[in-house]
From TrEMBL:
<dbReference type="InterPro" id="IPR050516">
    <property type="entry name" value="Olfactory_GPCR"/>
</dbReference>
<dbReference type="InterPro" id="IPR017452">
    <property type="entry name" value="GPCR_Rhodpsn_7TM"/>
</dbReference>
<keyword id="KW-0812">Transmembrane</keyword>
<feature type="transmembrane region" description="Helical">
    <location>
        <begin position="25"/>
        <end position="48"/>
    </location>
</feature>
<comment type="function">
    <text>Odorant receptor.</text>
</comment>
<dbReference type="InterPro" id="IPR000276">
    <property type="entry name" value="GPCR_Rhodpsn"/>
</dbReference>
<keyword id="KW-1133">Transmembrane helix</keyword>
<dbReference type="GO" id="GO:0004984">
    <property type="term" value="F:olfactory receptor activity"/>
</dbReference>
<feature type="transmembrane region" description="Helical">
    <location>
        <begin position="144"/>
        <end position="168"/>
    </location>
</feature>
<keyword id="KW-0472">Membrane</keyword>
<dbReference type="GO" id="GO:0004930">
    <property type="term" value="F:G protein-coupled receptor activity"/>
</dbReference>
<keyword id="KW-0552">Olfaction</keyword>
<feature type="transmembrane region" description="Helical">
    <location>
        <begin position="193"/>
        <end position="219"/>
    </location>
</feature>
<feature type="domain" description="G-protein coupled receptors family 1 profile">
    <location>
        <begin position="41"/>
        <end position="290"/>
    </location>
</feature>
<dbReference type="InterPro" id="IPR000725">
    <property type="entry name" value="Olfact_rcpt"/>
</dbReference>
<keyword id="KW-1003">Cell membrane</keyword>
<feature type="transmembrane region" description="Helical">
    <location>
        <begin position="112"/>
        <end position="132"/>
    </location>
</feature>
Length: 312
């Protein structure tokens, strides 16, 4: 009877983490704390890199875009999950699920694209310092950011169109706290999912190109840094690049695992933890590791807290 109801119902049923009411409340409170921390840290980076005239270099412009993406990315899944846990109701309408898939896919691919652009920015700054302002002039940076958002939007449209063109004839139960793309594909009982596989294969090829671009950029960066004669210069260059490399490695490895691992009707605790790291922890860590560790950003924070006006 439950199987029939979940097959014919209009939306989907998100199973979340637990059926125990106390654990649902705990999950909602933990997610709320992490969400507020993420919103606050990303907003700090966005505000400081917008109003501080000393932070208008391309590196900070791209960092602001990354924070904007992280803020949007975590807002796609976490508020809905908090609401479901507090209300003890895992139902999500098909319209909400479609929007969640679109924004989740769009922002995921936009983030990969902006990380690729940021690696090229570091490559230009370290390997071609004399020509950096020519290579990364403001008009080119703006075009790169437009391309990042356009790439993400196209990817989201492709994913959403492919997934919701399939026929869902199994019980519409998603063993996750959001509309997970692999879980949705698993609900298909026909060959309709072959379209989705084609989209995934095409976008995976683009992701591989981005990954190779990042790897090549960092090979050139590290070979250049190791030739710097002063230890202080090498240390400064590594302190700028290593946080970016950590963010890129963390994001790509977790994203690849999330999308390539086989789906299961009863996900393990490890599967759920990987999903949490990918969708929740990564947007939380990015502004802390990549932005608030930066001396110029910290100085901007001090000026923001201690004075009403930024130094022009």
């Amino acid at each position: 009877m439950i199987m029939a109801n979940t097959t014919s119902m209009n939306g989907f049923l998100l199973m979340g983490f637990s059926d125990i009411r106390e654990l649902q409340i705990l999950h909602a409170l933990l997610f709320l704390a992490v969400y507020l921390l993420t919103v606050a840290s990303n907003l700090i980076v966005i505000i400081i890199t917008t109003v501080d005239q000393h932070l208008q270099a391309p590196m900070y412009y791209f960092l602001k875009q990354l924070s904007l993406l992280d803020l949007s990315f975590i807002s796609v899944t976490v508020p809905q999950s908090i609401h479901n846990s507090l209300m003890n109701d895992g139902c999500i309408s098909q319209g909400q699920c479609i929007l969640q898939v679109f924004f989740f896919a769009s922002l995921s691919w936009s983030e990969l694209a902006i990380l690729t652009v940021m690696s090229y920015d570091r490559y230009a700054a370290i390997c071609f310092p004399l020509y950096y302002e020519v290579i990364m002039d403001p008009s080119k940076c703006q075009c790169a950011v437009r391309a990042v958002w356009l790439c993400g939007s196209i990817s989201g449209i492709l994913y959403t169109s492919a997934i919701f063109s399939i026929t869902f004839c199994k019980a519409k139960i998603i063993h996750h706290f959001f509309c997970d793309i692999p879980q949705l594909i698993k609900l298909s009982c026909s060959n309709d999912y072959l379209t989705v596989i084609g989209v995934v294969a095409f976008l995976s090829m683009l992701a591989f190109i981005c990954f190779i671009s990042i790897v090549l950029s960092y090979i050139r960066i590290f070979s250049t840094v190791l030739r710097i004669p002063s230890a202080e210069g090498r240390s400064k260059a590594f302190s700028t690049c290593l946080p970016h490399l950590f963010v890129v490695s963390f994001y790509i490895s977790l994203g690849a695992f999330e999308f390539l691992k086989p789906t299961s009707d009863s996900p393990t605790a490890f599967d759920l933890m990987i999903s949490i790291f990918y969708t929740v922890i990564s947007p939380t860590l990015n502004p802390i590791i990549y932005g608030l560790r930066n001396e110029a950003i910290k100085e901007g924070c001090r000026k923001l807290l201690l004075s009403r006006q930024f130094t022009k």
